[in-house]
C-alpha cells in the first residue's frame, strides 16, 4: 500500500490541545521494515506527545511502474497523483531516506522531481536520514537541505540522523538520538502548532 494512514493521538487528552497537525512522511527506503522508518517512528512518537497529529506515509519504492516511468507530472496515474498531492498539502513534511553512495536514493529524488515547484514554499520540512556510519550524516546538510531550499521550503533547523550502530535491527536504541529528537522538536513545537491552526 502506497499511502498509509496512521493513528495520531498520543493520549485521550491530546485532542483538546487544538487541531491535529497533518504530517506526511515521504519514505525513501526500499526496505520494509527499515532503520529509516525506525528513526521516523521515534520522531512521530515524540511529536505525538507534544500535540495532536494525523500521520500519512508515502513509500516511494512502492509507487509502481506508473511512478518510475513518469517523466512529467502529467504522466503519472491517479494513485501517484494522490500521493504527490498528499505531500504537497501536508502541514509538516518529514523527508526520510537512507544514504546510498553518499546521497539519498534516486527514487526519493524522483518523487520530488514530480512535486510542483512552488507547492512546498514556506512549508515546514523535517529531514531524517540513516546510514552505515556517522560520516554519512553530512547528507542532511549537503544533499537534502539544498534540495528543499530549491523548493523554498521552511526546513527545520535541527535534522535527525542515526547510524547502523544506533539500532538493534530496526529499533533505535541510542539515547543521544532520542535526546536530539526531543530537543529539536521542542524548539519548533510552537511553529508547528501555529501551522495546524492557520492551515489554508
TrEMBL record:
This protein's record includes keyword Oxidoreductase: yes
A single MF term (Gene Ontology): oxidoreductase activity
Keywords, comma-separated and alphabetical: Flavoprotein, FMN, Oxidoreductase
Lineage: superkingdom: Bacteria
Gene3D superfamilies: 3.40.50.360
Source organism of this protein record: Nonomuraea deserti
SUPFAM superfamilies in the record: Flavoproteins
Entry keyword annotation includes Ribosomal protein: no
Protein name as catalogued: FMN reductase
One family name in Pfam for this protein: FMN_red
Domain (NADPH-dependent FMN reductase-like) ranges: 22-164
Amino acid at each position: 500500500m502506497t499511502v498509509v494512514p496512521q493513528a495520531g493521538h498520543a493520549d485521550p487528552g491530546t485532542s483538546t490541545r487544538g487541531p491535529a497537525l497533518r504530517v506526511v512522511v515521504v519514505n525513501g527506503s526500499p526496505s520494509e521494515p527499515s532503520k529509516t522508518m525506525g528513526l521516523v517512528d521515534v520522531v512521530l512518537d515524540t511529536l505525538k506527545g507534544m500535540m495532536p497529529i494525523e500521520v500519512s506515509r508515502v513509500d516511494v519504492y512502492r509507487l509502481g511502474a506508473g511512478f518510475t516511468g513518469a517523466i512529467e507530472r502529467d504522466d503519472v496515474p491517479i494513485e501517484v497523483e494522490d500521493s504527490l498531492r498528499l505531500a504537497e498539502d501536508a502541514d509538516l513534511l518529514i523527508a526520510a531516506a537512507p544514504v546510498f553512495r553518499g546521497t539519498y536514493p534516486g527514487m526519493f529524488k524522483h518523487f520530488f522531481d514530480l512535486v510542483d515547484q512552488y507547492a512546498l514554499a514556506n512549508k515546514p520540512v523535517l529531514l531524517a536520514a540513516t546510514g552505515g556510519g556517522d560520516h554519512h550524516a553530512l547528507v542532511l546538510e549537503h544533499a537534502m537541505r539544498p534540495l528543499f531550499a530549491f523548493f523554498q521550503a521552511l526546513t527545520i533547523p535541527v535534522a535527525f540522523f542515526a547510524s547502523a550502530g544506533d539500532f538493534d535491527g530496526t529499533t533505535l536504541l541510542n539515547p543521544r538520538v532520542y535526546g536530539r529528537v526531543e530537543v529539536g522538536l521542542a524548539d519548533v513545537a510552537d511553529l508547528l502548532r501555529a501551522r495546524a491552526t492557520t492551515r489554508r
